[in-house]
TrEMBL record:
<dbReference type="GO" id="GO:0004746">
    <property type="term" value="F:riboflavin synthase activity"/>
</dbReference>
<comment type="function">
    <text>Catalyzes the dismutation of two molecules of 6,7-dimethyl-8-ribityllumazine, resulting in the formation of riboflavin and 5-amino-6-(D-ribitylamino)uracil.</text>
</comment>
<keyword id="KW-0677">Repeat</keyword>
<keyword id="KW-0686">Riboflavin biosynthesis</keyword>
<dbReference type="InterPro" id="IPR023366">
    <property type="entry name" value="ATP_synth_asu-like_sf"/>
</dbReference>
<feature type="repeat" description="Lumazine-binding">
    <location>
        <begin position="1"/>
        <end position="96"/>
    </location>
</feature>
<protein>
    <recommendedName>
        <fullName>Riboflavin synthase</fullName>
        <ecNumber>2.5.1.9</ecNumber>
    </recommendedName>
</protein>
<feature type="domain" description="Lumazine-binding">
    <location>
        <begin position="97"/>
        <end position="193"/>
    </location>
</feature>
<dbReference type="GO" id="GO:0009231">
    <property type="term" value="P:riboflavin biosynthetic process"/>
</dbReference>
<dbReference type="InterPro" id="IPR026017">
    <property type="entry name" value="Lumazine-bd_dom"/>
</dbReference>
<dbReference type="InterPro" id="IPR001783">
    <property type="entry name" value="Lumazine-bd"/>
</dbReference>
<keyword id="KW-0808">Transferase</keyword>
<comment type="pathway">
    <text>Cofactor biosynthesis; riboflavin biosynthesis; riboflavin from 2-hydroxy-3-oxobutyl phosphate and 5-amino-6-(D-ribitylamino)uracil: step 2/2.</text>
</comment>
<dbReference type="Pfam" id="PF00677">
    <property type="entry name" value="Lum_binding"/>
</dbReference>
<feature type="repeat" description="Lumazine-binding">
    <location>
        <begin position="97"/>
        <end position="193"/>
    </location>
</feature>
<dbReference type="InterPro" id="IPR017938">
    <property type="entry name" value="Riboflavin_synthase-like_b-brl"/>
</dbReference>
<feature type="domain" description="Lumazine-binding">
    <location>
        <begin position="1"/>
        <end position="96"/>
    </location>
</feature>
Length: 196
């Protein structure tokens, strides 16, 4: 489990193909790896990946075909990626509960800076929209965000300066694909209502 509070922006250093999986080597940026061990989980752009190797102040993770099919940006050389280590029981929960299981790929339809704030509008897959509600939580590329409004097939969030400075959102632009995870609580509520 994660919180959606990004610890660092890293970069994909290299990608090695091997059968049905890819091994990505990630420069962790400013994230401290001294407490990371092989087998630990790190969210990379919102996808929970398992550390397969630690090497020269970087880590490697294997990505299955299934993960590649429902995410974007994990296999692009030099791509900036949001990183977060798994939540520990003693940690504060500053964002919201994030599983690191990406539900789908969405598209940025508007990215507009207004003063020190930024409006981000994202078109979500239609099947996921029923889980997205105003004032609810959503995870975009591993970042916990609060939804302002939902209109048609898109939803809007406001990005504060801290988020822009400490995530890969500074590289967003219209048309860019992003990883989307809906709120886990919304998923279970919808499931329970469908069984009633």
């Amino acid at each position: 489990m994660f919180t959606g509070i990004v610890e660092a922006v890293g970069r994909i250093k290299s990608v090695d193909a091997g059968g049905d999986t890819l091994r990505v080597h990630i420069d962790p940026g400013g994230m401290d790896l001294s407490d990371v061990a092989i087998g630990d989980s790190i969210a990379v752009n919102g996808a929970c990946l398992t550390v397969a190797a630690l090497e020269n102040n970087s880590f490697a993770a294997d990505i299955s075909g299934e993960t590649l099919n429902c995410t974007c940006g994990l296999s692009l050389f030099d791509n900036p990626v949001n990183l977060e280590k798994a939540l520990q029981f003693s940690d504060r929960l500053d964002g919201h509960l994030v599983s690191g299981h990406v539900d789908g790929v969405a598209e940025v339809v508007q990215f507009r800076q207004t003063g020190d704030r930024c409006l981000l509008a994202i078109q979500a897959p239609e099947a996921l929209l029923k889980y997205i509600a105003p004032k609810g939580s959503v995870t975009v590329d591993g970042v916990s965000l609060t939804v302002n409004q939902v209109t048609g097939l898109s939803f809007e969030v406001n990005l504060i300066p801290h988020t822009l400075q400490n995530t890969n959102f500074k590289y967003l632009e219209q048309g860019k694909k992003v990883n989307l995870e809906i709120d886990i609580v919304a998923r279970y509520v919808a499931r329970l209502l469908n069984q009633a």
